[in-house]
Design a protein that fits this description.
Strand content: 25-35%
CATH topology of the largest domain: BirA Bifunctional Protein, domain 2
InterPro entries: aa-tRNA-synth_II/BPL/LPL (IPR045864), Biotin_CoA_COase_ligase (IPR004408), BPL_C (IPR003142), BPL_LPL_catalytic (IPR004143), Transcriptional_repressor_C (IPR008988)
Enzyme class: ligase
CATH class of the largest domain: Alpha Beta
Organism: Corynebacterium mastitidis
Helix content: 10-25%
CATH superfamily of the largest domain: Bira Bifunctional Protein, Domain 2
Keywords: ATP-binding, Biotin, Ligase, Nucleotide-binding
Strand order of the largest sheet: 1-2-5-9-8-7-6
Protein name: biotin--[biotin carboxyl-carrier protein] ligase
Largest sheet: 7 strands, mixed
Radius of gyration: 18 Å
Length: 251
Amino acid sequence: MDEPTLRTRLGAAASAYARLRVVAQTGSTNADLLAEGDAPDRSALIARHQTAGRGRLDRRWESAPDKQLALSVLYRPAARLVDRMGLLPLAAGLAVVDVVHQAGLKWPNDVLIGGRKLCGILVEAADLSTRPRVVVGCGVNLALEREELPVAHATSLALEGIDHDPARIAAGLLEALENRVQQWTCGSPALLKDYRERCVTLGRQVRVARWGEIVEGRAVDVSATGSLLVDTPRGREEFSAGDVTHLRPAT
C-alpha cells in the first residue's frame, strides 16, 4: 500500500484529511503525530511496520511488516469538546466495526471477533487546557498467522477468513473515522445508540481492574460520558477507566 493507492481508494473522502502520509516504518504513529506541534487538524499517518507501538495501560507491541495496519489521525477539537473526550475512544472503536462488520466491541474499544482481539485503539491528548490536540491510533491485525499473534486470545482478518487488503481497510477506516468523529463533534445521540448495539460487554458478568482494585458485577450500560456502568454487590458503579474481563456469556 502506498499513498496514491490509498487516495484512489478513498476517492472524495480523502478531502476530509489535511494531510495523508504512508510510511514504510516508524516507531509509533501516535508518537510521531503528537511530536509535531504544528500538524494540522486531521493529519493522518499510516505505517506498514511499527516498531514501538503502545496500547492502553502503556502496553508495548511491535507490528509485523505488512501484516498489521498502524493508523493514526490527529485532531484539533474545539475547547468545548474537552469535556466530551471520554466518548472519543468509543467513536474510534465504532469506526473499526463499521468496516469489519463481523466484529464487536469490548468496553471501551477493544475490537473482538468471537472473543478474540482483532484491533487495539489508543487515544492520546495534549495541550487540553490551551490548544487541544488528540491523536486516535488504531492497530489492526491484517494477515498475522496463528504463530505470529502477540497473545493467544488475538486473531487477524486473515485467520477469520475476511478480506485483509491493507488499502481497503485503511480507506474504510479513515472514512468511518471521519463519520464517527463528526457525530462526536456535534453530539449526535446516534453515536451512543450505535455503540450500545455493538458493545458485547453489556449484559455480561465482568471483572474490572482499576487502580489496584478488582470489582465484579454485571455490565448494564454506558453513560453519556462513555463510562461503563456495572451492577456490583455494592450497588451500581461507574468506571471511566479500567481493564475489563468478560467472565461468562450474557444470559
